[in-house]
Structures are given as C-alpha cells and as structure tokens.
Amino acid sequence: MQKQSAWRFRSSSVGLIKVEPNNDDYSMNNGDFENSSSADLLPFGKSDEKTQLFLKEIFEILLKYISKSFDRKCKILDFHHPHQLLEGIEGFSLNINGEAESLEQILVDCRDTLKYGVKTGHPRFFNQLSSGLDIVSLAADWVTSTANTNMFTFEIAPVFILMEDVIIKRMMKIIGWENIDGIFSPGGSINNLYSVMLARHKIMPDVKHSGLRGFPQLVMFQSKHAHYSNKRPAAILGIGLNNCIDIEVDERGHMKPEDLELKILQSKLDGKVPFYVTATAGTTVRGAFDEIVKISEVCKKYKIWLHVDAAWGGAVMMSQKHRHLVAGIEMSDSVTWNPHKMVGVVLQCSMFLTKHKRLLESCNNMRADYLFQQDKHYDITYDTGDKTIQCGRHVDVFKLWLSWRAKGDKGFCHHVERCIELARYLVRKIKKTPGFQLVFQEPEYSNVCFWYYPPSIRNICDEVIKNEKLGKVAPIIKSRMMERGSIMIGYQPLGSKVNFFRCVISNCAVNYDDIDFMVGEIERLGHDIDM
Amino acid sequence: MQKQSAWRFRSSSVGLIKVEPNNDDYSMNNGDFENSSSADLLPFGKSDEKTQLFLKEIFEILLKYISKSFDRKCKILDFHHPHQLLEGIEGFSLNINGEAESLEQILVDCRDTLKYGVKTGHPRFFNQLSSGLDIVSLAADWVTSTANTNMFTFEIAPVFILMEDVIIKRMMKIIGWENIDGIFSPGGSINNLYSVMLARHKIMPDVKHSGLRGFPQLVMFQSKHAHYSNKRPAAILGIGLNNCIDIEVDERGHMKPEDLELKILQSKLDGKVPFYVTATAGTTVRGAFDEIVKISEVCKKYKIWLHVDAAWGGAVMMSQKHRHLVAGIEMSDSVTWNPHKMVGVVLQCSMFLTKHKRLLESCNNMRADYLFQQDKHYDITYDTGDKTIQCGRHVDVFKLWLSWRAKGDKGFCHHVERCIELARYLVRKIKKTPGFQLVFQEPEYSNVCFWYYPPSIRNICDEVIKNEKLGKVAPIIKSRMMERGSIMIGYQPLGSKVNFFRCVISNCAVNYDDIDFMVGEIERLGHDIDM
C-alpha cells in the first residue's frame, strides 16, 4: 500500500532543513532465511549455526538503528496515523493471522517495527522525562533478556538478587538514612502505591486482615502539581480520591507547608486521620522541588508518613551542585526514584526505598511457604519474593548496576549537571528570541516551559482572545513536527495556563546546537499560523 | 579469591555423569577496551565505531551463553552461597564503589553475571513455571530494549500500542467473548489485582472517590490451592484477608462448586457482599483446572464477578486437544494469561483481559489531561495511559507478537501439547521406577508432583516417622542438585503432604532423555540419604 498521510502538511515558506527518511532496506548478509522457520532455530535445529546467523541478522538491524538514533540527519519518526499502520504500510502488517511466517519475514518485521517507531534516543527528542539511548545500560538489558530469569529468589537469580541488595544499600548512604529496605518495581506509579500501602500498614496494621471497614477515614495529601500516581493509590486502596487533598503551590510551584498544615488540621476537625504526605522532587510539568525540610517538620509534628516522589528529580542526589534541591530527603519515610529518567538507564528501572526495615515484608507477605521454602540450604534472607506485591518480577537492577559501574558517581553527576546546564541555556535562548515566552520563572531542573506566539497573534490586545488563540498554537506545531519528524517536544495546559511546550532534557546526546535547532524549528513550523 | 563451597557435597557412590563447568574466559576479538571508558561510546565518542565494537563483544558473550544454555554437557548453575558472591569470586565483584570501570571490565562483568547465574533455558531446568529460552522472543526483547520506549501513548510507541490492540482483539476470539478490553502488565499478580479492582468498581463505582468506609463488607473467594496473588488484592484494596475465603478442593485439586455456594450463602447471612470469585486454570503446584462451567453457574446465580486466573494454564486455549480444560472460560468476566509461562515468551509477558469494555478506563482513569492531551492530531483512542494503574509501562507485547508471527497458532499448540505429553511420559516413568511415588492422581497439565523415598526409609512401617523423614529428603536432594548443577527442580509441602518434588515442563528444549536423566539423577543424588 502506498504511504499516504491523512493530515496534509502545510508547507512553510521558511526553508526547512532536509531530513532523511528512515529507509534501510533489509539485505541478507548471511544465509537464506526465506525458506527457514523458527523450527530451524534452537532447540529444534540440529546445530546452533542457524540460530547464530539469525541473531547476527537481528544484531545488524539493531546496530543500524542505534547509529541512526544518534544521527541528526535522520528523522525522529516517520509519522503515520493509527488507521494507516493498521491497514499496513509498504508491506508492513501488524496482523496476527495464525500462520507461521518465515524467518526472513520475522527479520523484516523487526526492521519495520523499528522503522515505524519513534527514536527516543535521538538528540532532538525532548518529549518525555525518559529519553536517550545509553549504550551500556542497553547492553545490560540485552544480557538481562538473555538471562531470562525472575527476581523472586536467590535460587534462580543469585547475582541479580544480590545486585539489588548492593544498590539499595548504596542508596542508604546517598539518601542519608541509617536503615534501608527497598525493591525495584515496574515504575514510579507502583512505587508510589507501595509508599501509601506501607504508611497505612504502619498506622493500621490490622487493615491487612480486617479490611478498612470500622477504621477511621484516612486522608492523604500532595501538591496540586504532584503526579497523578500520587493520588491513584487512594482509589486503589479504598481510601477514596475525595480523601486525597490537593495542597496549594506557591509561584515557584512548591507545595505550601502552611496550606498543608491547615488542611491537616481541617481533616482532624472532620474526624479523619491524616496519615500520608507526598513531597515531589521534580514535578512532571515544571520540574519544581517541594521544600522537604519544611514539609517534614509538619509531618513530624502530626506524626504523618512523608514520601518523597523523586521519580524524576532524584538524580540531583548525584550532584553536589544540585543536591540542595532535595535537602531534607533523609527526613522522609520513603522515596521513589526512577534511574530510567534523568540518568538515562533504559526502560524500566525504578526503585522504592524506605527507612523502615521489615515493613515491606510485614505489609506484603502472604506466607506462601509452598512457594518460598524456609528449609533451603542457603541463606534465604535475600529472597525478595514475599515483600513485593508482584510474584514474578522482571530483572531491572542490572541495567543500573552496569551503568553505575561504567560511569561511576562522576558520570551520573556529569549527566545531571549537563542536562540542567542545557536547560539554562534554553532559558537564555527563549528570553532573547522574539515570539517566545517562558511560562514560569527560572526553572530549578531541566524542564523548560514556554509559549511560542506566531506573528499573527503577537499584537492582539484582548488578552482573552489572544490566550484562546495561543492555546491552539502548540497542538498545531506539535502535529507539524510529528509529520516532519524533525523534533519531538510535548505540550500541555496547566491550571489557567493554556497549552504550552514543555521541553525536557534528560538525554546526554543533546548539545547546544540541538537547543538552537529546536527553537528555530518551532519558529519555522509555527510562524505562518494564522487563526 | 579461590572458589570454595561452604556446603560440602557428599559424593555419592553411584557414578555421576561429568558436567562441564561454565568457564569461558573472555577473550578480546576486536579492539582494546582496557583503556576505554563509557565516555568513548555514543553519544560522546566521535564516531560510532567504538560503540559497534563494544556491542559486538557483548553479542559474542551472549551467543556463547545461548549456546551453552542448550548444551546438556554444561552445568545449569555454578552454585555459590550469597556470602561467597558478596565477598567476590575469582575477581567478580558485585560492589559499586563509585569509580568508573573500563569497558574491558564492563565486558568481564557481563560475562561473569551470566556465568554465576542460572541457565533457565537449559533442558534440565524444571524449576519454575517459566523456563526455556525462545530465540525469536529473545530477539524481540533485544529489539524492545533498543527501541527503549514506553507504552503510554500512540505518540511515542505507535507500533507497539497497535500491536497490543491487535493481540488483545485476537484474544477475544480465542476466549470466545463478544467484546474485549485488556492491558499487558508486569505479571499475573498485578493482573489479578486488576480483576478485583474492576469487580469492585462494577459493583461499587463510588468507592473510587468515596473510599470503602460506609459500604458493606465485600467478600471474595478462591480455591485453597489458588495462587497467593489471588488473595493479596484483599490486603491491598482494603477488603482484608479475613474476607477472602478459601474454598475446599476435591481429590483432583478442583474447587468444589457446592462449597463455594455454601460459603457465598454464609457470607450473605453474615450481612456481607460476595462479589468476586477466582477460578484457577492451572494451579501453581498441581496444575489443576477448576471447573469453570459449574463455577460460572454459581457466579451467575449470585451475580458475582468470575475471574479466571489462567496465568499458567491459559496456553491450553491454543490446543484443540486440551482446550476442554478451560471449557466455559467465555462465561468469565476476566482472565489473566502469562505467555511467558507455558508458551515460552521471555520474561515478562502477561495479559489482563476482560469482556467489559471501558471498565478499565472508568476504574483507573485519573483524567490527567495535562499528560494525556485530548487535542492531538491523531486518533487518541489507542492511547492506553489512563486505563492502567501504572504510568510508564514496559513494552511487553512485541515478544509475544513476534513469537506468534514466527510460530503461528500451530507452533503454540505444538508447544503445549508436547510439554503435556512429556509430563505424561514422566508420570509413566515414575510409576514404574522403584522409590518414586506420585503425590496426586493423573495430572491434568504439565506439573508432575512426586516423592522420592531413599532405600533407607522405604521399609519403615510407622507412617508418622516415615513421613517425617520423607519431608527432609527433597531439601537434601535439592541442595545436592544445586551444588552439582545437573538438574533444577522445585519442591514444597502442600497441606498435609510433606515436601515433594514438583516437576514443571514448559521448555520445548526438553526431550524424553532429559526426563529419564532427571529421574535417574534424583536417584543418584538421593539414594544414600540415611537419617
């Protein structure tokens, strides 16, 4: 089927730079897979020769993709609408019809899957908090896949189970606690869920067996700029979203400790039990850091669990220069940190950490002795099976462990500092470029939020009309950048602020020229917008 | 440090076959990495040559490992105790000291990580429900790692998001529902949690916002042989484990529908609200299949959500011959299936499926419009971000998609039927081998549970003493097999049955000789046990 775009790109009068398409025709280097099937591979094949040849072809496809990911001449994506991909493009079909395809087709499928995807490692991909393509952690993830084991017990994952222990103990020193327990889990949302569960278990251990009925109503708090996964546990755990109270933020996007205290007192007056506060280290949109010291004082006063959601901002712990942003983190009860965000470990790699030893175990264990035998011949204290809410658990630690070994503390430190420095450069650039405006004052982290005003709306005096038009600019530019594949950057509204761009820098492949290019490209893509 | 085992293997008088150690000294093929660091790799290096060389070295290590995984002459594991691995063995240190290591060391680390791990793909690894090393899905996981994207939106994972949709729709036909919705999540435990959340949301949608207080007490039910993750949601969701009722099983290990009905009625008499039943398709230990048709009739009568935990047994849906084991599955409200178990997709790959459209969305959405924009230029119905309890979600679909493309329905069917056939062969073997005894009658699936009686206890008349001694046999043999690295097979007690071996066959690399070898090896390792 011929490639066709349903959304017609209105070409700009400004000259657009040439972006090469992602064509890399798959060519056979070794062997002929046209007449081969998966039945020729191990363990069915007579030797492992065919397997090795097949994997070599896969490897070549991956090497080409990696090289293109870092190549600024290549598009970030080759955009197609859902219906186009579902209908099939240039022979690439997503269909599962039940027939077995040849290994030749399987190789083509792998190539096409990458070809029609998004190069999240591209130096001009600023779309998500996680970006980049770190070679060492990528290698580690290949090793992990190949080891194909599971994190329940030392018995079947001896090395990985101990690496998790080693990393968690190292985090104790980095955070500054005197004790630590923790677990790697599939993402910050699950980790934030762990924290609320533990806080509930600490204050009301009987809920585990008796249920919430009959207990006083629990109430939890977070800044109105907190990630939605800080609230969702209220829905999951039976606390109710109505008992999840938003705290006001100041002009820097920081939770107001005085508003927190007020709302804690109010909830007590209502006969409820305030038990849990999230402070955010690096909010999703602004990258703001709540003031942990002040919040921890309030929490201490009212004996409330303090969780720091540092999924995005936790990386500043690696930099002496920026660590002040999480000053007081050692006063928290628990922390979420996602090394797959700022320090670039490939997806997924996320930790839940708490200073309360054995609470994870006591909260989550199900005494499934028929699965976690107590009469093993080795020291079973490292078995983690009964402290998670999962059973099987993917090996996520090795990517971080290997990356840390390869880069050292200094490498992580450099990564964070470099990304923040690039963000500051972008701020300076925005300030001096006509038509661009920062949404907030100086950012604390690497999130930079800004509007672009096309010339046609710059001189509108009526602020209401101007804002209404401005809110439509970012979606139009976003659709154009996706069609062109030249840059990727997200947008969203926030409270009364209409749609604005949020540029996030977490990819160490980004350089100053990429920042300049991004600003220039937004102008090229948007200057002719006239509504 | 010299390798030393703290647990001394008492050599058996029966000749043990030679098992080769896992030594494969890492040798440089290309380039010199001794003086290279991660700073020489992309995006820092001037060209991608060094990156390609580094990844080629990794690839060679993986190829060697894969080859050894299938090689019966190689050990499954090279056992060391936790303290030995933590102290460091033959230069392999798990330590993170903050210094950056050379790329040479990083390569050695990768080799050693695999060397001291467990070869879960080995044809004599019968230890877990997930085993084997499927080459196509392994290749898919390498592609997934390299694509390094996230499952929230079509925007950044266009191909993978649609593949998930394609697979889920195919599951609709396979299960026999008229509608479907679903999500890939990190494991069966999380999927079982989804099912209880949805059942609660369907019966009490206000709980999401108001919390459980004020609502009648919910009660849920599962067989006493169900996996513990079917009960844990009661602890998480605030229902309470005391309100999670075990149902008796018959001699085949099937939940008794009449006991279920009795306990439902009892809970109603107690003023509670029965709302959720799990039927297990393939119990963890015995591999028993609850009778879904009978259970669904009870559920229908009392308007109760029926979940089928087919994490392990769901694969029988791919076989006409064995599909009868899940007869009635189309009458369920939701299903968990883990293709990383029986059909051998590499870890992790697990689905939650429900016939109730839009319930996932209505239960889990947080209306985080600032993250999931509604004014995008493409059809956003495929964005999954707001129907999961995660935010970022690992790409788990591609492993299954590619594997299904490569093998077809027939390949999956063959896999299941072959594993069950091998299990039946093992049953016949056990019946005719002196000293071995089946714990249960004929197995329905590929779990085979048996005891081995060493000669020293075979003639003990006092059943109490005999049983007590028997319970100690499996742990001793297990420790010996781990020391030797020749086979891996799990054991556990169940109810009044003392420790017995559970052999699970889910690896299509296993052949009849491996079954013979396993039985012979248990005898070789255990015949001299004298207590």
From TrEMBL, chains A, B:
It comes from the Eukaryota. One of its GO terms (cellular component) is cytoplasm. The modification N6-(pyridoxal phosphate)lysine is found at residue 341. InterPro entries: PyrdxlP-dep_de-COase, PyrdxlP-dep_Trfase, PyrdxlP-dep_Trfase_major, Pyridoxal-P_BS. Its cofactor is pyridoxal 5'-phosphate. One of its GO terms (molecular function) is pyridoxal phosphate binding. Keywords: Decarboxylase, Lyase, Pyridoxal phosphate. GO terms for biological process: gamma-aminobutyric acid biosynthetic process. SUPFAM superfamilies: PLP-dependent transferases. PROSITE patterns: DDC_GAD_HDC_YDC (PS00392). The keyword Hydrolase does not apply. The keyword Lyase applies. Belongs to the group II decarboxylase family. Homodimer. This is Glutamic acid decarboxylase. It comes from Ciona intestinalis. The gene is gad.
